[in-house]
Specification:
Length: 308
């Protein structure tokens, strides 16, 4: 991790140059990351493994990089991905709601935002003194020791002190947060996304090597996926994770990569082999060798297999 550079004066302005980020995190953000989890449900950092869809949505819609969640899961906070500052923690802090909407600037930089959180992790910016004080009372009643832990931990970070009056009006920088229109995507691009997601999800011999049928229209995509399974076995297979798991993975990947598009998936059974013995041989490879579920194969064979 790059060492943060110190400066007596920070230049912070919107920038038309590519950023995101190519610069040090800054002393405050770097120290916050090094603290690790400590804020329970009231305050924590996030990454792509847990909040990938939200991170992608805010990047694409508002050019905001999500850093964490706060206020008892009510909001996400992040920074503009493009900003003229020497370190990331000097970017303004943007708050979005739990659906990734209604973005607004809440603090001039990370240290200021964390000072407000230290005063009360349960109060949202822009509220009155009475609302801040009530939020603090309620947060203490509900979370008690956790609130004190958050305050103590945050105040160990460089530049962070408990805000004296977080309800006072702040002079905040103007950040362009209007939702950006989605870039046009060609039908060929959509097909590439579908093919890549299909290859990643459906590695088992249970499935045809490519989608059986794909229809792309203005509303979204309709995809037919075919099982390669002996007659009579498809219903039992669909109820098992061996099929349900890849289907879920495929659907969620498309919902993330084709954000806003309707995704309809139909599952059919179309055995590729005309020979019954060969069909069961292929099924055995898929279930026993690949999925390591010999009991499932034996149950299917006993109920639907060829009679000898």
């Amino acid at each position: 991790m790059a060492s943060p550079k110190k400066s007596s004066k920070t230049d912070t302005r919107p920038s038309s140059e590519p950023d995101a980020f190519g610069k040090p995190l800054g002393a405050t953000l770097e120290a916050l990351v090094e603290l690790g989890p400590f804020g329970g449900e009231l305050f924590f950092l996030v990454d792509g493994s847990t909040e990938g869809a939200m991170i992608t949505q805010c990047r694409e819609h508002y050019n905001v990089e999500i850093l964490g969640r706060s206020h008892d899961k009510l909001a996400y906070f992040g920074v503009p991905r493009t900003w003229e500052a020497k370190t990331v923690d000097q970017h303004p802090i943007v708050l979005v709601d739990s659906k990734g909407q209604r973005p607004h600037v809440i603090a001039e930089n990370l240290a200021q935002f964390l000072g407000d959180i230290a005063w009360c992790p349960g109060a949202l910016g822009g509220q009155t003194k009475h609302e801040w004080e009530r939020a603090k009372r309620e947060t203490l009643e509900d979370h008690g020791e956790l609130v004190r832990t958050i305050t103590d931990k945050l105040c160990t970070l460089p530049g962070v002190t408990v805000a004296k009056a977080p309800w006072t009006t702040k002079k905040l920088p103007a950040v362009p947060l209007q939702a950006r229109p989605p870039e046009p995507v060609s039908e060929e691009d959509i097909e590439d996304v579908i093919d890549e997601a299909y290859t990643e999800a459906f590695k088992s011999l249970l499935f045809h090597p490519s989608p059986d049928e794909v229809e792309i229209n203005k509303r979204g995509v309709a995809i037919r996926i075919a099982l390669d399974a002996p007659e009579g076995t498809s219903e039992a297979l669909e109820a098992n994770a061996i099929v349900a798991g890849p289907l879920h993975q495929f659907r969620e990947t498309l919902r993330t990569k084709l954000a806003g598009a309707k995704v309809a998936i139909e599952l059919v059974n179309d055995c590729l082999s005309d020979d019954v013995e060969d069909a069961w041989r292929r099924l055995k490879i898929a279930i026993v060798d690949q999925a390591k579920q010999p009991a499932l194969f034996q149950a299917l064979l006993a109920k639907y297999g060829p009679k000898r």
